[in-house]
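Checklist before submission:
- one chain only
- standard amino acids only
- sequence pasted in full

Submission:
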Amino acid sequence: MVLGLDISEVNISLFRLINDLGKEYPFLNPTFSFIAEYMVVLLALSVLFIWFTRETDNRMMILCASIAFLCAFTIGKVSGLFHSNYQPFVELTEVNQLIDKEKDNSFPSDHTILFFSYGISFWLFKRGWSILWVLLAALVGVSRIWVGVHYPFDVLAGMLISLASATFIYLTVPKLSVTQNAIKIYEKYENMLLPPFKRTKASKSKNV
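Returned file contents:
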């Protein structure tokens, strides 16, 4: 009981530490509000762009990242049945709430799960730019605290769930013949509708 109380106090203290920064540096609030709400658009556009580079390895990466997200999202919803808490702006006073959100269970953070599922998957597939997406995922997690809709432990839980899911999917799904065959069948019909890109030898040796 004491341990649970201490954890709760740490969670609230960390939340106050980050959320109160918006009161000290209000000029940063529009930036963090934008990141918290609309960075998902950049992720969606990037996923589509990578997919339509029409590189088989890139498509395997996007497929694994998407499956990892679905698995992590499901695990997150199940974990929310065993532990739940409302958003900080519901439970605490003087919260610097910057975006509108309905009252519901904020554990774990869905945005964090989404961005870390893709960011960690990109990193596992050894893309040179993947570290930028991992850092962006961390920034999104911090932004959700900054705008007052998640506790730090909501974000931490989302990150750990995503890490476990992305790692498991990376180690299993690419080896499955059904996955490889599904991509081959898709590419076969895609090539019937769209002419394949003409690629140079140099470009064939590089992945986006």
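Reviewer check: The CA atoms of residues 181 and 205 lie 22 Å apart.
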